[in-house]
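Late entry, evening session. Most of the bench is empty. Finally got around to the prediction I had been postponing all week. Sequence below, unchanged from the version circulated by S.P.
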Amino acid sequence: MGISIRMATVHDLPAMQQTNLWCLPENYQMKYYFYHMLTWPQLLWVAEDPKCKIVGYVLAKLEETDGGCGKSGGPDPIHGHITSLAVLRTHRRRGIATALMRQSQREMGGVMSAEYVSLHVRKSNKAAFHLYNETLKYSINDVEKGYYADGEDAYDMRLTFRGGKEVPKGADGALKMEGKLCDSAVITSQKSGDLLCSTAASHIS
């Protein structure tokens, strides 16, 4: 049996926080995880090994328009934002991060009708940038100077949705959000073994 990808529950939050502490310099208090869980439970997903250990997670939220203006001068549209993504070093390069991201993105674009999803990544984090830019097809929207606590700049990256599908910037056609979800691993549903379309849990073998 491989890694299970499923929607997170409130009981997963301590393990998600611990994974964050092990993997990333940007850490959050438990109340911040609870805030995400209570407000956007569909956007939190975890990767679990056969022994029920959490080995990765994605923490995300939905930003709803408040009447403010975006850079184009119009109202800032409803959009998703990836707050945090982490996979234990022992389980990297298996497509887990890609699967977690695409599950959360499916909920944002296909269910919550977000127009795009955004995230921040350190300019020095080449592995993460490759995941977002090359695999998931995010584009650089801006550079935020001194975004991180240590003063490092961040890339503000975005991926646009159209009709519940991912549309890379400049692409002629949309990338379907159903079917195979990652490049380096096949994700199957727990019951049927079919390629995952809309099941709540899946496996990476």
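Two things to note before I forget:
DSSP finds four helices and ten strands in the chain.
The two ends are 7 Å apart (CA to CA).
Will write this up properly tomorrow.
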